[in-house]
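Following up on my earlier thread - several people asked me to post the actual chain instead of describing it. Fair enough. Here it is, all 378 residues.
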Amino acid sequence: MNNFKNELFYKYALVVFLIIAFFEGILMFGMKKSFDVHLKDKLAIIASEINPKKFDNQKLLEIQHKYKVFPLFVQIVKTKKMPQVSSGYSTNVINTPIKKEKVLTYTVVKKPYIIRISTLYSTNDDKIEIIKIISLVAAFIIYLISLFIGWKFIETISKEVELSIKKLKNFNSNVSHELKTPLAIIKSKIDVALMNKEKECDKLLYEILEEIEYINDITEKLLFLTKKYNNKNFEKIDLEELLFELYEKYESKINFELHFGEDDYMILGDKTLLKIALGNIIENSIKYGASKVVITLQKQKNKIILSIKDNGIGIPKEKLPFIFDEFYRVDESHCKNVKGFGLGLSIVKNILNLHKAKVEVKSKGGVEFIIEFPALKE
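Reply from S.P.:
Thanks for posting it. Predicted structure:
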C-alpha cells in the first residue's frame, strides 16, 4: 500500500508541476506581450507631446523621466519635399559592444517634420526580471502547499482504500466460511441418506432443506446489501401502526411492553424496508435470550424517538462500535449455538441511513436501540 501511495504522490507532484509550469509560461509570455504593448503606447504618447520647433536635450530628459523610458532616442527631420513615409512602428536589430539589441521605433509625420522615436526592447527587461522572480517564488510556494495538501489527501484516500480492501478480504473470507459450513452439512446428510437408503430419509431431507434455506437466507441478505435503494418511492407511514404489525408477528415468540403517547407518529419512508429493519432488531433479541421487549414511541419537536429495549444478555461496551459491520458477531462462544452470520444489523444500519434516521445502541441490563426519525412536516 505504501508503494501505491508513493507512486500516486509522485504522479500527482509531476502533474501539479506541469500545470504550474504551463501557467507560469503563459504568464511570462503574456507579461512580455503586455510590456511590449505598453512600451509602444508610451512612444506614441511621447510623439504626440513633442513639438518639433521647441525640442532640445532638456526636453528629452524631462520626457525620459516622466515616462520612465531609458534610453530614448528622438530624431527630428525637417524636409521641404515629403518622402513616402507613413506613421507606425518598426523594429530592427543593432549590434552593441555587449550583445545584439532589438530596437523599437515609432515614426510620425508632422509636416514639414518627420519624427522618429526609438528605444530598446530591453528597456523592460529589469521590470520583467523582478516580476519573474516574484512570480517564481509565488509559484514555488503554491507548489509546496499543493504538495502538502495532495499528500494529506492521498494519505486519507489510501487509508480508505486499504480499509476497503481489508473489508473486502474479510467479506470474502466470511462468505466462504458461512457457505462452506451448510454445504458440508448437506453433503454429509446426503452421504448418510445414500448409505441408509430409505431409512430416516424424510428426516435427513428435512435437515437438508433447512440448510438450503439457510444458504438462501445468506444469499438474500448479501443481495440486499449490494442493492441501491433510493427515497423516490417513499410514502407516509404511521410508525405506531407499523409497530403493532410487528407486535402481531412476534407476540408468540417474545413478550411485549408498548408505550405510545397520543401524538401523531407519521414519517416518510418505505414500509417494507422499515419492517425488515425493526424486525431484525426484535429477532436479535429473541435469538440472544431476551424474554421481553419494551417499545417506546415519543415525539420531540421535529423528530420521533423510537426505543426498543430487551432484557437479553447485552453487548460488551468495547464491542458496540462494531455491531453494524458485516459479518460481525459479538462473541462467538455465545453465538455458536445461534443460527446467523452477522448481517442483520448491517442491514438495519443501511435502511435507517436511507431514511436519514440516527441510531444509538446502549447496553445496560440488556440492549436498547434508540432510533431518531425525522418527523413528517405537517
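Residues 2-128 form one domain. That should answer part of your original question.
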